[in-house]
Write a structure and sequence with these properties.
EC number: 2.7.7.13
Distance between the termini: 48 Å
Radius of gyration: 25 Å
Strand order of the largest sheet: 18-19-20-27-22-25
InterPro entries: GMPP_N, Man1P_GuaTrfase/Man6P_Isoase, Man6P_isomerase-2_C, ManC/GMP-like_b-helix, Mannose-6P_isomerase_type2, NTP_transferase_dom, Nucleotide-diphossugar_trans, RmlC-like_jellyroll
Structural class: alpha+beta
Strand content: 25-35%
Mean pLDDT: 94
Pfam family, one: ManC_GMP_beta-helix
Catalytic activity: alpha-D-mannose 1-phosphate + GTP + H(+) = GDP-alpha-D-mannose + diphosphate
Number of strands: 28
Number of helices: 11
CATH topology of the largest domain: Spore Coat Polysaccharide Biosynthesis Protein SpsA, Chain A
Helix content: 10-25%
Largest sheet: 6 strands, antiparallel
Protein name: mannose-1-phosphate guanylyltransferase
Number of domains: 3
Length: about 475
């Protein structure tokens, strides 16, 4: 491959010469709580640019030299993923839905099986949906070399040249140079996240690279190595793929078969055991954006070393990251702090303890706090809703429906609802009636009424919903018809 992946498109390029991007969108990013939660994790937030993390990843592997991406994501995030890809013009993606999380080895195996259905010799570039690259211009040449090596039957990973003794990353020890491929090396070993002393020793040695978690290989090679080391995963994934269901833009893996997969990462399943492993050192400005301290490092700073995002005022403050998503936040007389403010939670910690945020999330989960996993704003395929006020027998929500979208045809056994339109126009089904509700108009839906809400207009529909009744849980929804195939 004599040219870089991102050069001008070849008019008659054979399918097997295209690189297939594989984007893994799993995990909850709990170290970036309270912004990142399992209901809406960090890959769907614009943390380092105007685009979200998954959009940045998709655009990095879009255009000449690439086929449509394969995206593996949680079933609950399917509509968010599809919409975010659409927003940046990434079309034709194959979105594989995991019915249950089983780590990266089963996810990558599923992507390889799907690619092999069209071309067993397809070159796959596997990457996480939530990593940042500040030097994307350096990726093309390294990827071109990796694709060449992959076509020769090896598995390639990119090792990032360390800039410090980092304890939050895994490491790769590079070995001898790979014959015939300038810039590529054999792999001596993978090293788990080290303590501070070990990280310093490895950094000073110059032999170790940060483990980026990116891999390049052909579908044929990866499936052969998986068969060798983890045949149970291959068998379960093949069954899940054979029994998959196509649904709108998604491929739903069979739940029973996929759940039988062992829970194991690709590092443990293959990378640490195969004799085919190769590493290419790279300077991509890479970060896994795994903590608020990492975001502080990536972000532009003022003269005092501060990062300020949102409605923030700082005085006599240095080396701090302060983010507020709406609420006025004032900080004074501190240094090296991380302050993150959401409408339902606030995080304050020293930058040196950024990795400890995960422990706080674990405590919140143990205490049964919904804030550990869910945002006050809940996204749905038709838009979103958020709770404004909640009492023992009533609840007030703001509901926003995107243009052309509609909720399911449904009814409730325990609550009545009153809708007041404050922006846009609503098309409301109420039993046998069809009602057009305009701004400053309202409609009442008694308990048990079969109803549906639609936005027939060209601007978002916003309404205030007042619920009343003895039980107001989201599980009191009986869906009679749903265009999004929800049960």
């Amino acid at each position: 491959m004599g040219t870089t992946i991102t050069q001008a498109a070849r008019q008659q390029e054979p399918v097997s010469s295209l690189v297939v991007p594989v984007i893994l969108s799993g995990g909850s990013g709990s170290r970036l709580w309270p912004v990142s939660r399992s209901s809406y994790p960090k890959q769907f937030w614009p943390l380092v640019s105007k685009h979200t993390m998954v959009q940045e990843t998709a655009l990095r592997s879009h255009g000449a030299g690439f086929s449509a991406p394969i995206v593996v994501c949680n079933n609950e995030h399917r509509f968010i993923m599809a919409e975010q890809l659409k927003e940046v013009g990434v079309t034709g993606a194959h979105i594989l839905l995991e019915p249950v999380g089983r780590n990266s080895a089963p996810a990558i195996t599923a992507a390889a099986v799907l690619a092999a259905e069209t071309d067993p010799d397809a070159v796959l570039w596997v990457m996480a949906a939530d990593a940042a690259m500040q030097k994307p211009q350096n990726v093309g040449p390294a990827l071109a070399l990796a694709a060449q090596i992959a076509r020769a039957g090896r598995i390639v990973t990119f090792g990032m040249t360390p800039t410090r003794a980092e304890t939050g990353y895994g490491y790769i020890e590079k070995g001898a140079a790979l014959d015939g491929y300038d810039g590529a090396f054999s792999v001596v070993k993978f090293v788990e996240k080290p303590d501070a002393d070990k990280a310093a020793s490895m950094f000073e040695s110059g032999r170790f690279l940060w483990n980026s978690g990116m891999f390049v290989f052909t579908a044929r090679t990866m499936l052969a190595e998986m068969e060798k080391f983890e045949p149970a995963i291959v068998a379960a994934v093949r069954e899940a793929m054979d029994r998959r269901r196509s649904d709108i833009d998604f491929e739903r893996l069979d739940a029973t078969a996929f759940a039988a997969c062992p829970d194991i990462s690709i590092d443990y399943a293959v990378a640490e055991r195969t004799s085919l492993m190769t590493v290419i050192p790279g300077d991509f400005g890479w970060s896994d954006v795994g903590s608020w301290d990492a975001l502080w490092e990536l972000s532009p700073k003022d003269d005092a070393g501060n990062v300020s995002i949102g409605d923030v005022f700082m005085h006599n403050t240095s080396g701090s990251y302060v983010r507020s998503d709406g609420v006025l936040t004032a900080v004074t007389g501190v240094e090296d702090l991380l302050v993150v403010v959401k409408d339902d939670a606030v995080l304050v910690t020293h930058r040196q303890h950024a990795q400890d945020v995960k422990a706080i999330v674990a405590q919140l989960k143990k205490a049964g706090r919904k804030e550990a996993t869910a945002h006050a704003r809940c996204y749905r395929p038709w838009g979103f809703y958020e709770t404004l006020i909640k009492g023992s027998r009533f609840q007030v929500k703001r509901i926003v429906v995107d243009p052309g979208e509609k909720l399911s045809l449904q009814k409730h056994f325990h609550r009545a609802e009153h809708w007041v339109v404050v922006e846009g126009t609503a098309h409301v089904t109420r039993d046998e009636e069809i009602i057009l509700v305009r701004e400053n108009e309202s409609v009442y839906l008694p308990l048990g009424t079969v109803h549906r809400l639609e936005n027939p207009g060209r601007i978002p529909l916003t309404l205030i919903e007042v619920q009343s009744g003895p039980y107001l849980g989201e599980d009191d929804i009986v869906r009679l018809e749903d265009i999004y195939s929800r049960s």
